[in-house]
Structure formats: C-alpha cells, structure tokens
Amino acid sequence: MKESEVIAKTDDVRVRVMTLNTREIADWHYHTQVTDDIFCLSGNILVRMKEPDEEIQLVPGHRCHVTKGRVHQLENLDLTEATYLLVQGTGGYDFNIVKNL
C-alpha cells in the first residue's frame, strides 16, 4: 500500500486518502476504538468483513461503514490503482492484524 495523504489527524480522528496498488489485498485487521468509513474515489474496491461474513463492492461515490472491532480487509479488483477516503474515529487508533482466516 502506498503512503497515505493525511487530510486531518487528531488524537481521536484520522482522515486520509489511501491508495491500493494494482490487485493489492490488505491484511485482515480490526480496530478496537475507531470505526472506518470508506469512500471510494477511484477504481473498484471490495471490502470483506467477518461476523457476519459480508462483502461490499465500492465504485467511485460509494461508501462502506465498518464498526469498531469488526475484522475486515480491502482488495483492489482493478488492474490500475484504486483510491479511497478513509475517515476513522472517534477514539485512539490501532491496527490489529488477524492471521489464519
């Protein structure tokens, strides 16, 4: 994943533009205090979530909400980069990788 562009960052809120490389798949992970609001800016992004199992496909203009504690991952389905606006809040940020899913 490319380095993100930080729009805003406080102790309780983060807003960043994130880029997924061609066909990139992010690690399964969760956050203990923050929710993720994912707004697709370009490309074709698949958001997978656990408990319950769910998949949401995002194209530009579409949004997905991931509650705190819910295990999830993102995948770029395209052969070009995909970008999304990630709004995380409110609470302290953490990134907990989940293996063996």
Task: Report on the architecture of this protein.
The mean pLDDT is 95. The protein is globular and about 35 Å long. The protein has a single domain, classed as Jelly Rolls (Sandwich), CATH 2.60.120.10. The chain is built from no helices and ten strands. Strand 1 and strand 2 (13-20) form a beta hairpin. The strands form three sheets. The protein has a five-stranded antiparallel β-sheet, with no helix packed on it. It has a three-stranded antiparallel β-sheet with strand order 6-5-8, with no helix packed on it. The protein has a two-stranded antiparallel sheet with strand order 3-10. With 101 residues, it is mostly beta strands.
Instruction: Tell me the number of structural domains.
Output: 1
Number of continuous helical runs: 0
CATH fold node name: Jelly Rolls
In total, how many beta strands?
10
Q: What would a concise description of this structure say?
A:
This protein is an all-beta fold. It has no helices and ten strands.
Which properties best describe this structure?
101 residues; mainly beta; Jelly Rolls; 3-stranded antiparallel β-sheet; 10 strands; 0% helix; 51% strand; globular
Q: What topology does this entry show?
A:
Blueprint: E1 5-9, E2 13-20, E3 29-30, E4 35-42, E5 45-49, E6 54-58, E7 63-66, E8 72-76, E9 82-89, E10 96-97
Antiparallel strand pairs: 1-2, 2-9, 3-10, 4-7, 4-9, 5-6, 5-8
